[in-house]
């Protein structure tokens, strides 16, 4: 029986294999770090919606206030998705024949809900309250981005816990007068940092950082 | 008990006989704080299967759904009803009727789903409180075992059918019956005070003059009713104003337990058990079974129930001697010639109680228990009249139907008619007589002789299977209705949800039978009240409020009739101690399952019975001395023989149970119900033992001539009483500590030194190694629990379970100490084991400022909040259980399994609908505990801040606090010095549990104060 002898090229292959083995953990870590981060998985999430509704058109061009449709945002945890009725307030008269609005008309006739796909989807163990933020002067744009420029809504921020805490620890840069929350073009007068500080003091804003603020 | 040095225990509190006796079993328990290791649990043992069958629904995917890859959908309504905001719970007034008495409730609806029951603060029968049964009733709406539709039975053959088919069958049937004036038609119904049902009944009587309406309840106030008939010539209902009562003498009654007005009684009596609010009352309890009132009592005399009649007579003799009643009231009873009455202890008890009643004329109450015979009630009425209590602490309202026969008599004549073949059609509304009728009636056999047997019920139960038609009954939260409160207040019921399985209410079925032109519950109820609520506005107000204000029955003052000399049977005369074969059997409804109708409710099954702490079953309770005499060991099976019938069930020693008396409870042993209570055909054994088998019409509650034969066979009881032993240094340590946990003094001591509780424990100055992590500038939440008010009713436990999505684990897990209740109610005994005193102590998480749990968590899953809560972050928890090990109060609960596993499959998915969406559902391997209902705190805080207003004191109520009938639990902001909780915590009676450990708990207890009569001491 003859002994197996590695061919000569195996010597070079050894160093390559070593490099691969040594590099694998680094690569895997980097892959998971990047691949599983909310920045990769969540930001830019833009599912196809059952109705080709354009926020850019309604909110941007037509200038309809966010609260015309999301009318519970100042009272409740949820900024409710509007009922079909809200669509029909206008579309009973405008674009009554548009094929794009067929699902809306169908929903109105049958009483079956339009199945919108959730874009900003927090885990079930997180209890976010819209009213608590909007009433203190956190603008829609701070979390949702320029929805008035989105023909199809996508997720603009990570909505990760670290991202939430960044603001809870230093809310100044995201504060504005509560009357301006839906204004997408609002700019702080003067130094934004100083103006935020002033608003924070005026409105007595002390965002809590306890676990039970969001987790119950 | 022989090895126990009885003297050594006088004055000290203890928890169980095992502990008192230092039994090997208890030592084992102490050694092993977390009971059996979980490897011992076979994954597929029958026990585990039972717990899988048990309630559980959970959002099993809760942890996963946050990931991006699962697409979530948002389905807005097409038209949003005015006044609704998605995701904001709303509350509606309705009521629950039990045994013909309605309790006003407020039910929380979350996006159209009823998820939580609270008391209606304005309703005179609730005052904002509700019982464990009310709290748990919401779970039944979502029970997958509920009847899902109409079906027919022929022999054992079950065929699914429909309401349409039933109507096609019923229309010609009842038309035919109508043409024969209703000959052969009988209706067997639950007792109901519904004005709408009464109106339909009179219509029915017109259309079917020969038909008969029979009312039957296995558990009822019939003895009270008959007792008032004896005393006044016509039945009356006795209303008590316990807030005005300085002296309460209970003749074997549980005013605070299953009494229909228990919520009213407890609220009133609690005000008189708070020394800061004024003079305390004094309670004397003469009873066989330790009742909640007996625990609260200042003096308790344990006597067999059958002896109470002689005691009542002696009390009448004693009192009459002192007050010299007017001749018109007839001669008083002579003191019965019974040897036991001459027993020094008994004689003195009666003499002192009589003296106290006379000294407080017009400010006392004598009341008899619903299981005592009518004569005892009549004597109680007589005593109240001659003591001038009537008009002051006692008032009367007339009975609705003074001429109706008693339930048992009515059922007996129905059975006779069925046996004689005179009944062709029997409609059973809601009741389950095949299971619950007295055993001597042979109801099942007689029922089979009826041609058309129509059964309306929420479950396909024992009676359904013996019927020809089964019709699904709408749950009370699915139906319109009305009923009267205990004081006669007209109470409205509105549905919270449309009938999920197409059920109909009894009202609707009777309307169908009588061929009424109205078919829908809402219209039927509205028509009944058309006169009183003539305008839309008035109707809407009544529905909104849940009752019609000022509609209580008028108070009457019936004339007391002379009561002849009572005849006392030899049994009723004693002796004080009886031999085997002559023992007494006391049959009572279960404090949770009632007469058995709530047996498929897992929350109630797992609620520990107040005194025994038994879950998932019933046992025969014996006094330890009696058990020793009979040779019966604790937790062994015994054979009970009575009246030629026998029953084998586990025996349990129950300190405080009268000697010679054995107590059993109804409601268990259901064979055909569901996967919680028992469904034999599906392989689910019943929980507990069916006691109806030995219950006869002559002895519905108290039966003599019982023989107990020990089998010696060990039986593992599902009790929680030895679990969570505080302190791990053995019995001595525990015995030393218990008096420090339950601090108690007599009223005189309290008056001399109100802050006695603060001096019970001496400890060196408490210094911490830790710097306080937060300064608590904003709110500082705290709680106080008044031990003098707490009566151990368990309403808080079930309220907490409903509010916080707490799973049920099953008996096998309970035995291992894995029950999940966030608030437990500890029960301690004090004194001799045969005639002890007792005390209750609810223990939720104490929310320590210097919390031992926080310091040991390796992953920071339990953290201190800015307001001083010990926050539990489920997602961080990796299940080391260090926190629970380090918790001196043993209030942390661990999810050993995914108790919501079976939720994923088919039918069980509906269970998820009962969850409170404001609270995370926990997964396997996660620790959990009381949060002070942080979801309620956050919700109020956010609303208050949105409107830039401060939080009002009392605006945030924890679930346990809101439901507490005695208002024993108070929650609020300690930084607000004007808040109620801050005042109570600053009060003299406040003390912390284990304060010497320097945990600085936020929950403080208010010490117990007893008010004994100086002569009884």
Mean pLDDT of chain A: 91
- What is the string of SSEs of chain A from the N terminus onward? HHHHHHEHHHH
Treating each run of at least 4 consecutive H or I residues as one helix, how many helices of chain B? 31
**Describe the biggest sheet of chain B?**
7 strands, mixed
In angstroms, what separates the terminal alpha carbons of chain A? 71 Å
Query: How many E-type strands of chain B?
Result: 41
Q: How many β strands of chain A by DSSP?
A: 1
Strand order of the largest sheet of chain B: 7-6-18-17-16-8-9
What is the structure about, briefly put?
With 216 residues, chain A is an all-alpha fold. Chain A is 41% helix and 1% strand. In chain B, the strands form 12 sheets. Chain B has a 7-stranded mixed beta sheet with strand order 7-6-18-17-16-8-9, with helices on both faces. Chain B has a 6-stranded mixed beta sheet with strand order 23-25-24-29-22-26.
Describe the structure.
The complex is a heterodimer of chains A (216) and B (1017). Helix content of chain A is 41%, strand content 1%. Chain A has helices spanning 10-35, 38-41, 55-61, 66-69, 84-91, 102-110, 130-134, 140-144, 161-169, 192-202; one strand spanning 116-117. The N and C termini of chain A lie far apart (71 Å). The relative contact order of chain A is 0.12. Chain B is α/β, with parallel strands linked by helices. Chain B contains 31 helices and 41 strands. In chain B, helix 8 (222-232) packs across helix 13 and helix 11 runs parallel beside helix 13 (374-386). Classes of the chains: A mainly alpha (216), B alpha/beta (1017). The A-B interface holds A 41-42, 45, 47, 72, 74-78, 80-85, 107-108, 111-118, 121-127, 129, 131-132, 135-136, 206, 208-213, 215-216 and B 59, 62-63, 65-68, 71-80, 85-88, 778, 863-867, 869, 871-875, 918-920, 931, 934-935, 938, 942, 945-946. Strand 1 (116-117) of chain A pairs antiparallel with strand 2 (73-74) of chain B, so a sheet runs across the interface.
